[in-house]
């Protein structure tokens, strides 16, 4: 009788790459849900809610990558151009997010912009999965330490978004983030504007 297969070790819940991949999957599911809603009529409120969620998730995900993951990868690999390209892709996504946030679901290009954003994100995710993540692993980036920082910062940003969505204010102790950029201006961010 052959030996039972060994159970695969679960990655640490703070492994940076596994955490970012989980975000990618969750965001992809939101784009699929949006696409399904865009094929039906009388779904303006639902489409708006899903689009806002997509924009919020992407904004937080992009911010934690830019503040924590990309600097760690940049320091460990000898390929600044790869990280530069990823940052430019994030900037392009932010532009679309801002445009979507300023639109109503009944506007002519609302659905098209969300769908194009999804295609843009698909290409970006493929680049991360096929190039950035393998290089980070090969360079022996401390993925658990980076993952713990990602998880902490993400939780803080999500808390800020939720507080602003409820009409509250972010905590006073939030100050600047570790790389010197101010925290998200949630009061004026298009995702959280009514």
Task: Chart the SSEs and their pairings.
Layout: H1 16-38, H2 44-76, H3 80-101, H4 110-138, H5 143-165
Helix pairs in contact: 1-2, 1-4, 2-3, 2-4, 2-5, 3-4
Structure description:
The structure is a single chain. Helices cover about 65% and strands about 0% of the residues. With about 190 residues, it is mainly α. It has helices at about 15-40, 45-75, 80-100, 110-140, 145-165. It is built from 5 helices and no strands. The longest helix has about 35 residues, at about 45-75.
Q: Name the overall outline.
A: globular
Order of helices and strands: HHHHH
> What count of helical segments does DSSP give?
5
Quaternary structure annotation: single chain
Instruction: Round the mean pLDDT to the nearest integer and report it.
Output: 84
Gyration radius (Cα, Å) is 18 Å
Q: How big a fraction of the residues is strand?
A: under 5%
Summarize the structure.
The chain has helices at residues 16-38, 44-76, 80-101, 110-138, 143-165.
Structure characteristics:
single chain; 5 helices; disordered C terminus; mainly alpha; 194 residues; globular; disordered N terminus; 0% strand
């Amino acid at each position: 009788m052959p030996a039972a297969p060994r159970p695969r070790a679960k990655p640490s819940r703070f492994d940076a790459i596994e955490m970012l991949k989980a975000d990618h999957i969750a965001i992809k599911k939101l784009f699929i849900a949006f696409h399904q809603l865009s094929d039906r009529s009388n779904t303006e409120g639902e489409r708006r809610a899903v689009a806002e969620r997509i924009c919020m998730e992407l904004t937080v995900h992009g911010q934690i990558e830019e503040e924590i993951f990309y600097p760690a990868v940049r320091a460990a690999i000898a390929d600044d151009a790869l990280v530069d390209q990823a940052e430019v892709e994030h900037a392009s996504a932010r532009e679309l997010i801002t445009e979507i946030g300023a639109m109503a679901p009944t506007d002519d290009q609302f659905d098209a912009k969300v769908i194009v954003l999804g295609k843009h994100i698909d290409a970006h995710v493929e680049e991360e999965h096929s190039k950035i993540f393998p290089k980070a692993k090969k360079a022996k980036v401390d993925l658990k330490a980076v993952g713990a920082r990602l998880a902490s910062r993400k939780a803080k940003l999500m808390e800020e978004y939720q507080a602003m969505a409820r009409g509250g204010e972010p905590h006073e102790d939030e100050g600047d983030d570790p790389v010197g950029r101010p925290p998200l201006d949630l009061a004026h961010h298009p995702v959280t504007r009514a």
